[in-house]
Design a protein that fits this description.
25% strand, globular, 193 residues, 13% helix, 13 strands, single chain
Length: 193
């Protein structure tokens, strides 16, 4: 495990859909790796309720594990209201991590099968650059009560589905945090459209 340190020859640390919180010693090892100029990809899932707060705080990011839904732009799979949590988006920034997706636009949408969202903290240090490379369709809402319907108090907006962070001098730390690990799964590839 990561109780003592991330191996020194690690070029990218991938944390894919953690199902339970990491031990404090593991979090400390991850932070030490990141502070030393490490590269990390973190993909979280709202249903697991693992927020990686101890790692995301220094990256100036916050993960929200409430599932987003959209009644206008979604991928039908079961042909029930639950499909509204199968988000589809072609809203990409100019960040290098999504250059190809931006160029292809609606011909290469990203699919998220049950996503939370990421917020960048305000008032962050000047040496921490944060970008929101992937955003949900602007009619996406936070489905607080899980009924797949937009209810009063469930705000609609283009929620940030990913956060890209770079920090420091050479070697520069880089992190990519995404609000749904299912976007990397075969299940998303099989979605129609």
């Amino acid at each position: 495990g990561l109780l003592q340190e991330v191996p020194k020859d690690t070029t990218v640390l991938v944390i894919m859909g953690p199902q339970r919180p990491f031990a404090p010693e593991e979090m400390a090892s991850i932070n030490k790796y990141i502070d030393g100029g490490g590269r990390v990809l973190i993909a979280l899932d709202p249903e697991n309720h693992v927020d990686m707060k101890a790692v995301l705080d220094p990256l100036q990011l916050e993960y929200h594990d409430v599932t987003l839904a959209n009644d206008q732009a979604f991928v039908p799979r079961t042909h029930t209201l639950a499909d509204r949590t199968n988000l589809v988006t072609a809203t990409f920034s100019s960040h290098p991590s999504v250059t190809t997706l931006l160029r292809l636009g609606s011909r290469a949408p990203a699919i998220f099968l049950g996503a939370g969202w990421i917020d960048a903290k305000r008032g962050r240090p000047i040496d921490v650059q944060v970008d929101a490379p992937i955003k949900a369709h602007y009619q996406t809402f936070v489905d607080k009560n899980g009924n797949f319907q937009p209810d009063p108090g469930e705000q609609r907006r283009a929620w940030e589905l990913a956060g890209a962070v770079s920090k420091g001098q050479a070697p520069q730390m880089r992190a990519f945090v995404i609000a749904d690990s299912d976007c990397f799964a075969d299940e998303a590839i099989q979605a129609p459209g």
